[in-house]
Specification:
The complex is a heterodimer. By secondary structure, chain A is mainly alpha-helical. In chain A, strands 1-2 form a two-stranded antiparallel sheet. In chain A, a hairpin with a 2-residue loop joins strand 1 and strand 2. Chain A starts with 6 loop residues before the first helix and ends in an 11-residue tail after the last strand. By secondary structure, chain B is an alpha/beta fold. Chain B has one domain: Amidase signature (AS) domain (Amidase signature (AS) enzymes, Alpha-Beta Complex). In chain B, about 35% of the residues lie in helices and about 15% in strands. Chain B has an 11-stranded mixed beta sheet with strand order 1-3-2-4-6-5-10-11-9-7-8, sandwiched between helices. Chain B starts with 7 loop residues before the first helix and ends in a 15-residue tail after the last helix. Classes of the chains: A mainly alpha, B alpha/beta. Chains A and B meet through helix 1 and helix 2 of A and helix 9, helix 10, helix 11, helix 12 and helix 13 of B. Chain A: Its EC number is 6.3.5.-. Chain A: Belongs to the GatC family. Chain A: Keywords: ATP-binding, Ligase, Nucleotide-binding, Protein biosynthesis, Transferase.
Chain lengths: ~100, ~475
């Protein structure tokens, strides 16, 4: 796991995370992610062969409740936070770009 | 109103006696905080209008003599939802976001009669330890304006240290309450995971995040935790464990208490002055009748590596919701939906947030999940087991809160150095334990904090140990001068 991360991998990861990196940013982030990944190598020293992973430390398991919808009745207040609203609906650009080619 | 040298109990007395009304107090508090903010920039926004209105209502119905929090002005970290008031989490992404609800902790503080005067500055999405990644500019340390206030709850801690407010609420994912409390010479508590509802806290890493109070004194801190703790139907990870009165045993002393001093937390990388302060604190506890013995937490040293896989992984998932559609920042130069997501996120998030999203995305991606995320989660188990072992024989663990006092605002910082700074606080979040920072010394005029770590849901014993120390030392009585380096 100590292999240095490549620009191509960083670029791929950025696209998975819906981020775009400029040509200047790509080497900068590649370097930094490489050194961050470097500190993870120390985990190879730890023997975890018989260890269960811990994903949460809550003491609550399977909290049940009635499956009822709660209408907060605050549509307008919610829409106030939306960047683009029309007729009580949130507007977005077209899903398929038809403007150019 | 300047709160240096004061506490909730003294202000409560003034309110009950009618020496000052809640409205006068609130106005004077905001006036003083605004003046201090010209130097320290602890606040993102003041909510003067609502605060005054609320104070007037409290005056009208009368200060409750049995409720010490009645009419006390407080501040909220900017990642906690406040109805109708800017909640930006220190990010451009949410720089225009006004929630339609109060988060549970915010609502409980309101029910308890406190008055929120505004939102405090923080690292963007609570990712950082110096409050330098905020969209709203840097906050300065009131003890020395050339130093960082710590983070991510840097504004929350600086506001309390500067005497702006007696109480602020912060959040702590890897040390974000305790480290700034340490850097600012105040008391900061990260309660047990599940003790305080996270409903309405903008999520960073959901298995680690916890809300807690920052205050000038230990007893004030306990009073505030009383108000915000408890089960909440909106947060299924909040615990239904009974909430005791955290002040009930606070003055019982430490006679017979067993305190563990883990040797790994006083090793390389920890400043000599910090080590000395903690060893002196251990001696003080012995003098007060406690037993203090060296123990080992051998896996804590892997905490940083495991944390910087787990926290970014959870963050990369939590932060997917910021897509520029329903709320928050939307890029104006997107031609289609895909571009809207990508450009809004790329323009709305700062570099540190992007770094963590990418580290998390990578750690969770196919082919790497076992080597990174699963491995880190297994190491987390080992860290937890270490603590369990020590707590079979001890009541409290004593460590430094941070390896150094507050560092310079000016230095260039690389991510790795910044991450290593969390080495002493991270294991506590990994194990979900309560941990608090208490003033324990000074180095060149900058505060040093000691960390007390407790068993799950045993905040009471932490307060008891912290109170005994505070009552027998005078570190908490010193005040910042709000000046620059000499």
């Amino acid at each position: 796991m100590s292999e240095k991360i490549s620009k191509e991998t960083v670029s791929h990861v950025a696209s998975l995370a819906k981020l775009e990196l400029t040509d200047e940013q790509l080497p900068y982030f590649t370097d930094q992610l490489g050194s961050i990944m470097g500190i993870f190598d120390s985990l190879n020293d730890v023997d975890t062969s018989n260890v269960e992973p811990t994903f949460s430390v809550t003491d609550q398991i399977n909290v049940m409740r009635e499956d009822v919808a709660d209408n907060w009745g605050q549509r307008d207040a919610l829409l106030n936070n939306a960047p683009d609203v029309s007729d009580g609906l949130i507007r977005t650009p077209t899903i398929i770009d038809e403007s150019g080619d | 109103m300047d709160y240096l040298g004061k506490d909730i109990f003294s202000i409560h007395e003034s309110l009950v006696n009618g020496d000052i009304t809640a409205e006068e107090l609130t106005r004077q508090t905001i006036e003083n905080a605004k003046k201090n903010d010209e130097d320290i920039n602890a606040f993102v926004v003041f909510d003067e209008e609502n605060a005054i209105k609320q104070a007037q209502e409290i005056d009208k119905s009368g200060i409750d003599p049995d409720n010490v929090l009645s009419g006390i002005p407080v501040a909220m970290k900017d990642n906690m939802l406040t109805k109708g008031v800017l909640t930006s989490a220190g990010s451009k992404m949410l720089s225009n976001f006004k929630p339609i609800i109060d988060g549970t902790a915010v609502a409980k503080m309101k029910e308890a009669g406190t008055i929120n005067i505004g939102k405090t500055n923080m690292d963007e999405f609570a990712m950082g330890g110096s409050t330098e990644t905020s969209f709203h500019g840097k906050t300065k340390n009131p003890w020395n304006l050339d130093k960082v206030p710590g983070g991510s709850s840097g504004g929350a801690a600086a506001a309390v240290a500067a005497g702006d407010v007696l109480v602020s609420l912060g959040s702590d994912t890897g040390g974000s309450i305790r480290q700034p409390a340490s850097f600012n010479g105040i008391v900061g508590m990260k309660p047990t995971y599940g003790r305080v509802s996270r409903w309405g806290l903008i999520a960073f890493a959901s298995s680690l995040d916890q809300i807690g109070p920052l205050t000038r004194t230990v007893k004030d801190n306990a009073v505030v935790l009383n108000a915000i703790a408890g089960k909440d139907e909106h947060d299924m990870t909040s615990s239904n464990k009974e909430v005791p009165d955290f002040t009930a045993n606070i003055d019982k002393g430490v006679k017979g208490m067993k305190i563990a001093l883990p040797k790994e937390y006083l090793g390389e990388g920890v400043d000599k002055d910090v080590q000395d302060a903690i060893l002196a604190a251990a001696d003080k506890y012995r003098e007060l009748g406690a037993t203090v013995e060296e123990v080992s937490l051998p896996n804590s040293k892997y905490g940083v590596a495991a944390y910087y896989i787990i926290a970014p992984s959870e963050a990369s998932s939590n932060l997917q919701r910021f897509d520029g559609i329903r709320y928050g920042y939307r890029s104006q130069d997107a031609k289609n939906l895909e571009e809207l997501y990508v450009k809004s996120r790329s323009q709305g998030f700062g570099d540190e947030v992007k770094r963590r999203i990418m580290v998390g995305t990578y750690s969770l991606s196919a082919g790497f999940f076992d080597a990174y995320f699963k491995k880190a989660a297994e190491v987390r188990t080992l860290i937890i087991d270490d603590f369990k072992k020590v707590f079979q024989d001890y009541d409290v663990i004593l460590t430094p809160t941070a390896p150094t006092p507050a560092y310079s605002l000016k230095d260039e910082k690389d991510p790795i150095t910044m991450y290593m700074n969390d080495i002493l606080t991270i294991p506590v979040n990994m194990a979900g334990l309560p941990g608090m920072s208490v003033p324990a010394g000074f180095s060149d005029g900058l505060p040093i904090g000691m960390q007390l770590i407790g068993k799950p849901f045993d905040e009471s014993t932490l307060y008891q140990a912290a109170y005994a120390f505070e009552q027998n030392t005078d570190f908490h009585k010193q005040d910042p001068k709000m000046g620059g380096a000499q």
